[in-house]
Design a protein that fits this description.
This protein is of the alpha/beta class. The chain is 47% helix and 18% strand. It folds into 2 domains: 4-79, Multidrug-efflux Transporter Regulator, Chain: A, Domain 2 (Orthogonal Bundle); 82-207, Response regulator (Rossmann fold), CATH 3.40.50. The chain has helices spanning 13-16, 22-29, 33-41, 59-80, 95-105, 117-124, 140-156, 172-175, 193-207, and strands at residues 19-21, 47-49, 55-58, 83-88, 109-114, 131-136, 163-167, 184-188. Mean pLDDT is 78; it is low at 1-16.
Length: 209
């Protein structure tokens, strides 16, 4: 884009009417005059200078800038409204296949994959997801410790994190008592692409109700 010093002043009265003063442009955009001047200098807005050194901003470029900002805000809101799901798969060889399937499904969900329980739990303190799905295949004692760690995490937080534990250990549910049964759910495993696809579709459907 050309900046203010590179644009020629419009010659006709009609064309001059399509330009606004810096103060008027600032009022239309809801910005300070200093920021409007900066946008002109950076080429974000088109304008020219009068012989007295006053800027005149093209009305069309103001409309284009407003549309650009509006679209950027819409993209931001759309991204922020997407649910973030963390999925821990103990068999790391499955992760590339899951990522490939996820790209093909094109679901409005952001999914992060983890290869270990430790990695997934440590990530909760910095990037809390909307839901955590964990596949556990370790010995029962280790699965009990993982379940207890997640329960302790939920007790410390203001709002419990929904957790789905996928396990083939049928005795896990009865072996460790925990009060937040509504936030930590155990389902039979193992995780498969079909299972994950169906579960994520269910999350999308429930979020639209």
């Amino acid at each position: 884009m050309l900046n203010a010093s590179e644009l020629e002043a419009p010659q006709s009265k009609a064309s001059r009417s399509q330009f606004l003063s810096t103060a008027r442009a600032a009022k239309v955009l809801g910005l300070s005059t200093t920021l409007v001047q900066t946008l002109v200098d950076q080429g974000e807005l088109k304008g020219w200078k009068t012989r007295g050194g006053h800027r005149r901003i093209a009305f069309d470029s103001i409309s284009e800038y407003q549309s650009h900002v509006h679209m950027a805000l819409q993209r931001k809101v759309k991204t922020e409204n997407r649910q973030h799901i963390s999925v821990m798969v103990e068999n790391s060889e499955w992760i590339p296949a899951f990522k490939n399937d996820l790209a093909q499904w094109q679901l409005p969900i952001d999914v992060s994959f983890f290869e270990s329980v430790t990695e997934a739990i440590l990530d909760l303190s910095t990037h809390r997801p909307d839901m955590l799905v964990m596949e556990l295949s370790a010995p029962l004692v280790q699965q009990e410790k993982t379940l207890q760690a997640l329960e302790n995490f939920n007790k410390r937080g203001k709002s419990p994190l929904p957790v789905v534990i996928v396990t083939q250990e049928k005795s896990l549910l009865s072996s460790v008592p925990y009060p937040s049964a509504s936030t930590i759910q155990l389902v039979p495993g193992p995780i498969s692409p079909i299972w994950l696809h169906a579960y994520l579709i269910g999350i999308v459907a429930s979020s639209r109700l």
